């Protein structure tokens, strides 16, 4: 049976950085589920489909094929066969992903793909509903969070480093709106699974968070063997 580590939490909590590092250290596959929702959102944007038009989105879903591949250990997202990874990490695509991930047609498709990946490989999978819905039987579940101000500042620094002009207050407001949508949607809202361990990264560096989660994994491994 494969070993599954689920890391959920709000936008900007550091999930992907931590999950990627952890997967590398453990020799597991890293699965970034947010990138899959972003790929679908990118398709809707490219086809001028509005984020609030559920009918058009449901109609488009059968035409959208999202798959993932690995290049030098890095996840690549293929949208109808084309590698779109480089276009997914913009605010526009992130907001569209948050808006369109509320629809069952979108979620059903991606959850199926995520479960298949976790069945065949040891994975560290991050997202919003991994511990609660996608992999309820995951051996390790972590709910990784940080204060809104910390998350906004991290995002601001990331964009500034890339040379993108941005406004800290707007980023913080976007994060608040995104949290609100992700936590209050009807299907699979973001919430801490009852058996997940809460890790608050507001005052912690990457190494500290990774070692805290590794300790949680070690404990789970020992419990499994006992
Ligand atoms: O983690 P991220 O910012 O790349 O995710 C983008 C959006 O996708 C997020 O706001 C909500 C949605 N999402 C989801 O609904 N379920 C997941 N497992 C992952 C992401």
Q: Strand sequence of the main sheet, in spatial order?
A: 2-6-1-7-8
What is the fourth-level CATH superfamily of the largest domain? Answer: P-loop containing nucleotide triphosphate hydrolases
**What percentage of the residues does DSSP assign to strands (E)?**
15-25%
Cofactors, ions, other ligands: 2'-deoxycytidine-5'-monophosphate
Number of helices: 9
Name of the CATH first level of the largest domain: Alpha Beta
CATH topology of the largest domain: Rossmann fold
Tally of distinct domains: 2
The topology string of helices and strands comes to EHEHHEEEHHEHEHHEH
Protein topology:
Layout: E1 4-8, H1 15-26, E2 29-32, H2 33-46, H3 54-60, E3 66-71, E4 74-79, E5 82-83, H4 91-100, H5 104-120, E6 123-127, H6 130-134, E7 140-145, H7 148-161, H8 168-184, E8 197-200, H9 206-225
Helix pairs in contact: 1-9, 2-4, 2-5, 7-8
The site of 2'-deoxycytidine-5'-monophosphate (DC) has 15 residues, from helix 2, helix 4 and helix 8.
How would you characterize the overall build of this protein?
This protein has 226 residues and is α/β, with parallel strands linked by helices. It folds into 2 domains: 1-28 and 123-226, Rossmann fold (3-Layer(aba) Sandwich), CATH 3.40.50.300; 33-121, 3-Layer(aba) Sandwich (Rossmann fold). The protein has 9 helices and 8 strands. The protein has helices at residues 15-26, 33-46, 54-60, 91-100, 104-120, 130-134, 148-161, 168-184, 206-225, and strands at 4-8, 29-32, 66-71, 74-79, 82-83, 123-127, 140-145, 197-200. Strands 2-6-1-7-8 form a 5-stranded parallel β-sheet, with helices on both faces. A 3-stranded antiparallel β-sheet has the order 3-4-5. A hairpin with a 2-residue loop joins strand 3 and strand 4 (74-79). Helix 1 crosses helix 9, helix 2 packs antiparallel against helix 5 and helix 7 (148-161) crosses helix 8 (168-184). The longest helix is centred in the last third of the chain and has 20 residues, at 206-225. The radius of gyration is 17 Å and the shape is globular. 2'-deoxycytidine-5'-monophosphate binds next to helix 2, helix 4 and helix 8.
């Amino acid at each position: 049976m494969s070993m599954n580590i689920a890391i959920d939490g709000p936008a900007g909590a550091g999930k992907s950085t931590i999950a990627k590092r952890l997967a590398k250290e453990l020799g597991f596959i890293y699965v970034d589920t947010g990138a899959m929702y972003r790929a679908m959102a990118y398709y809707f944007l490219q086809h001028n489909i509005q984020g609030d038009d559920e009918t058009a989105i449901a109609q488009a879903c059968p035409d959208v094929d999202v798959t993932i591949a690995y290049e030098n250990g890095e996840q690549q997202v293929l949208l109808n066969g084309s590698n779109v990874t480089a276009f997914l990490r913009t605010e526009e695509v992130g907001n569209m992903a948050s808006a369109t991930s509320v629809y069952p047609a979108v979620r059903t498709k991606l959850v199926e793909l995520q479960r298949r990946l976790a069945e065949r490989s040891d994975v560290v999978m991050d997202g919003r509903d991994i511990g609660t819905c996608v992999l309820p039987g995951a051996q390790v579940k972590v709910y990784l969070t940080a204060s809104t101000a910390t998350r906004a500042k991290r995002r601001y620094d990331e964009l500034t480093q890339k040379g993108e002009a941005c406004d800290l207050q707007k980023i913080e407001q976007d994060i608040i709106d995104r949290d609100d949508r992700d936590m209050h949607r009807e299907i699979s809202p973001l919430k801490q699974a009852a058996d997940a361990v809460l890790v608050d990264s507001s005052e912690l560096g990457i190494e500290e968070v990774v070692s805290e989660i590794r300790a949680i994994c070690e404990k789970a491994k020992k419990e499994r063997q006992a």
